[in-house]
Amino acid sequence: MELTRNLSLSLHRLTEFKALLGRGAYGRVEGKEVYVGSLRLLKGMRIEVEDPKIKELQEQGKTVVFTIIDGKLAGAFALADKIRKEEPTEHHH
After folding, report:
1. CB of 27 closer than 8 Å to CB of 64
2. CA 42 to CA 76: how far, in whole Å?
3. What are the average pLDDT values for consecutive 10-residue runs of the chain, which has 93 residues?
4. Which residue, 5, 8, 47, 75, is the most exposed by fewest CB within 10 angstroms?
């Protein structure tokens, strides 16, 4: 919530929500059907993505998350794990 205030973003009321196991989530926001999820979700909705940037992000090991509003692809963003340097651990037997 603090981040939305700092960025002057507004939040809209979610009136319906459903988790879509292994694909993403569905919600109704301001009367619009909003889906957020994976490429698997898009394929199930028969939405094609031909953007080479998406493939490039996936090849880098990033998870691309898509947003679909009222049946149309509205956007995408990528998530990646930050690789941490782990301290070596000793194993005693």
Report:
1. no
2. 11
3. 58 88 93 93 91 89 93 91 68 57
4. 8
